[in-house]
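Is this the right way to post structure tokens for a design question? Let me know if I should format differently. Anyway, here goes:
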């Protein structure tokens, strides 16, 4: 007696089932193919240099001879025997605390003004955004230095009111403010983000608050700020990270020396000085990793604090 032959419909069902199991694998393979350029770039251009710099931070390296392992000596010297390192850290922290809040406040104020106008919004938005495109360049930083230098435009303007500053960039108490003002002037990018967030606030909330008798200040505090808090948080994190890494304005305003009296010696400027001027690349690598850790800690603290003041619509 011959064995029964399988039915054709059973064979086709088994084939379709196998094809269904193989389809996710083919899609996964295609995804890895498309991701491979990014993965290769991240491994070669980001991860590998980071690991090399981590190794160099434990060595004495001058770019010309082979690295010499010194263990934690760079970190110990940094924290215990280098007063200029601490001066650069304090200058950077002071700059962050001054520049970031003032920049965000100005960006929000201009965004509120632009959100209330009907005609010409595109023109004004582009005009206010332009400094963010130009401000990071060396040429604008040089112009900024000339404006606040001895005999510059700002100095001449103040002299007409009987105020003789002798040039802001030459005064240890004012040079850091010059760099901060350059950053505050570049408020265009956060302004555009604030403006986009303002346009997403439901108008019904303002109408309800107005019916309840809320004035402009109360509507701003009770409606605008809570609804804009996720955008404010995003701008705060982004601008804080960028402020810790400021280099071009400080380098240009101080002539690359961090003067006068180390008043504009920012962290990245001192890192550049140790690595490329003094050829202490191992020490500079250690400074870079400390900066990375500090930025990570500050960012984590900002995220943790956001639980108490950032409002998301999906929370109900």
């Amino acid at each position: 007696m011959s064995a029964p032959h399988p039915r054709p419909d059973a064979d086709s069902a088994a084939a379709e089932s196998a094809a269904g199991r193989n389809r996710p694998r083919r899609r996964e393979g295609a995804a890895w193919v498309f991701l491979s350029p990014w993965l290769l770039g991240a491994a070669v251009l980001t991860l590998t240099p980071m690991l090399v710099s981590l190794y160099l931070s434990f060595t004495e390296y001058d770019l010309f001879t082979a690295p010499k392992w010194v263990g934690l000596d760079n970190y110990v010297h940094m924290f215990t025997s280098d007063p200029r390192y601490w001066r650069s850290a304090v200058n950077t922290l002071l700059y962050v605390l001054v520049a970031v809040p003032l920049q965000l406040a100005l960006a929000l104020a201009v965004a509120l003004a632009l959100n209330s106008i009907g005609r010409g919004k595109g023109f004004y938005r582009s005009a206010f955004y332009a400094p963010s495109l130009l401000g990071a360049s060396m040429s604008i930083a040089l112009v900024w230095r000339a404006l606040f230098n001895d005999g510059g435009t700002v100095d001449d303007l103040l002299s007409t009111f009987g105020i003789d500053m002798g040039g802001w960039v030459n005064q240890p108490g004012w040079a850091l403010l010059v760099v901060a003002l350059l950053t505050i002037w570049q408020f265009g990018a956060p302004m555009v983000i604030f403006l986009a967030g303002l346009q997403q606030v439901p108008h019904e909330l303002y109408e309800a608050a107005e019916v309840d008798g809320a004035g402009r200040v109360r509507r701003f505090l009770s409606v605008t700020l809570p609804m804009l808090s996720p955008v404010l948080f995003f701008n705060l994190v982004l601008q804080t990270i960028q402020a810790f890494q400021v280099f071009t304005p400080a380098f240009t305003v101080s002539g690359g020396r961090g003067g006068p009296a180390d008043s504009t010696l920012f962290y990245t400027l001192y890192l550049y000085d140790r690595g490329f001027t003094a050829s202490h690349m191992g020490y500079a690598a250690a400074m870079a990793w400390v900066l990375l850790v500090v930025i990570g800690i500050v960012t984590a603290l900002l995220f943790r604090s956001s639980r108490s003041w950032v409002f998301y619509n999906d929370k109900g």
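Format looks fine. Someone answered above. Worth noting: The mean pLDDT is 85. The CA atoms of residues 258 and 265 lie 4 Å apart.
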